[in-house]
Amino acid sequence: MGEQNQQRDYGLSCLTWQDKETSAFISHCLNYDLMETGATREESWKNLKTVMKHHIEHCYSRYPLGLKRSAPPERWEEFYLSLQKNPQGVVVEQLDIDPLPPLPDHSIPIWLQGVDSSGDLPVF
Fold it and tell me: Residue 2: inside a domain, yes or no?
């Protein structure tokens, strides 16, 4: 069987479209329900890949529940309809991930302070 006949199981599914009102391009990773925009299709796709990379790297060791999010069913339906209508329009790329090492079992306190520079009121 030739390689072109083998079906692959891709880990992430994304959908890109142009917003009619703003003309901005929107790219949506359905697996994690992450969206990014751009002035061009390429820019929105590049922005989404960056966000997906950072999201996966962070959630892998810091917030595993973040890897269980998903887009609503109607967006998935739109994705599969688009695949059927335009199978030649599919873009496949590899996303290189550098997962962070897990945090230690005990938490490390991180203190921060904030101040309202316009007056005497606390930030909180």
Answer: no
Q: Is residue 108 part of a domain?
A: no
Structural domain includes residue 59: yes
Report how far Cα 84 is from the mean position of its chain's Cα atoms: 23
How many domains would you assign to the chain? Answer: 1
CATH number, domain containing residue 77: 3.30.160
Boundaries of domain holding 48: 10-89
| Dihedral sign computed on CA atoms, order 102, 107, 108, 110 | positive
Look at phi and psi of residue 23 and say left if phi exceeds 0, alpha if psi is from -120 to 50, else beta.
Answer: left
Q: Which residues contact 51 (CB under 8 A, 6 or more apart)?
A: 29, 34, 36
pTM of the predicted model, to two decimals? 0.72
Q: Which residue has the higher pLDDT, 50 or 100?
A: 50
Give the neighbor-by-neighbor strand order of the sheet with 25-29.
14-18, 25-29, 34-38
CA distance 24 to 26: 6
What lies within 8 Å, CB to CB, of 14 at 6+ separation is 27, 28, 29, 30, 45, 48
